[in-house]
Specification:
Blueprint: E1 8-18, E2 21-30, E3 35-41, H1 46-60, E4 65-68, H2 72-81, E5 87-89, H3 95-110, H4 117-134, H5 143-161
Parallel strand pairs: 1-4, 4-5
Antiparallel strand pairs: 1-2, 2-3
Helix pairs in contact: 1-2
C-alpha cells in the first residue's frame, strides 16, 4: 500500500468515558476506511498528537496527504514533524474518520464503558483489527463475491477462536 498513489490518512480524536472521566482516543483511518492506528491519552494537546503521529508514521510510512479537523494540536504536531504541507483541513473532509467512530461507539455501549486505560487501549486496537477484517464494503462488490469473502473471514475467525 505504500506505493499507492493516492495514499491518504484521516486523523481525529474522540472522547471516551473511563471510570467517569473523559479520555481521548486518537485514530488514523486510511482513504478506504481501514483503521490504521488507535492511541489513548488523557490529554488533547500537542504532545499527545505528536506521540500518536510518530507512532502511526513509524508503523505505516508517510502518506501523500493527511486530513484533519481544525484542532490546533494537529497543526502544531505537523509543524514539528515537517508534514504541514501535507495537511488538509475542510468542513466535511474528515467524514471518513468520523464515520469510523460509529462501530466503536456501538461496541462501547454494549460493553458498558471501560474501567482501565490499558483495557481501553487493548480493546481499541483489537476492535480496529477485527473491524477491518470483517468490514467488506458490500456496496463495492456483487453478492456472490461478498458472500465468498464473508464466509472466508468467518471460517478463519472460527479456526483462530477454537
Amino acid at each position: 500500500m505504500r506505493g499507492f498513489r493516492h495514499w491518504q490518512w484521516h486523523l481525529d480524536e474522540m472522547y471516551v468515558k473511563l471510570n467517569g472521566e473523559m479520555v481521548y482516543l486518537w485514530r488514523a483511518v486510511d482513504h478506504e476506511g481501514e483503521i490504521l492506528e488507535s492511541y489513548v491519552t488523557k490529554t488533547r494537546d500537542k504532545k499527545a498528537a505528536l506521540t500518536f503521529m510518530k507512532k502511526a508514521l513509524k508503523r505505516h510510512g508517510s502518506p501523500e496527504a493527511i486530513t484533519t479537523d481544525g484542532l490546533r494540536s494537529h497543526g502544531a504536531a505537523m509543524n514539528e514533524l515537517g508534514n504541514r504541507d501535507k495537511q488538509e483541513i475542510g468542513r466535511w473532509a474528515n467524514n471518513r474518520v468520523e464515520n469510523s467512530h460509529l462501530p466503536f461507539r456501538r461496541r462501547e455501549r454494549a460493553m458498558l464503558r471501560f474501567g482501565q486505560m490499558r483495557s481501553l487501549q487493548k480493546f481499541a486496537s483489537v476492535h480496529a483489527n477485527f473491524h477491518n477484517y470483517f468490514a467488506l464494503e458490500r456496496h463495492l462488490v456483487d453478492r456472490q463475491t461478498y458472500k465468498e469473502r464473508r464466509s472466508a473471514a468467518v471460517a478463519e475467525w472460527r479456526s483462530l477462536a477454537s
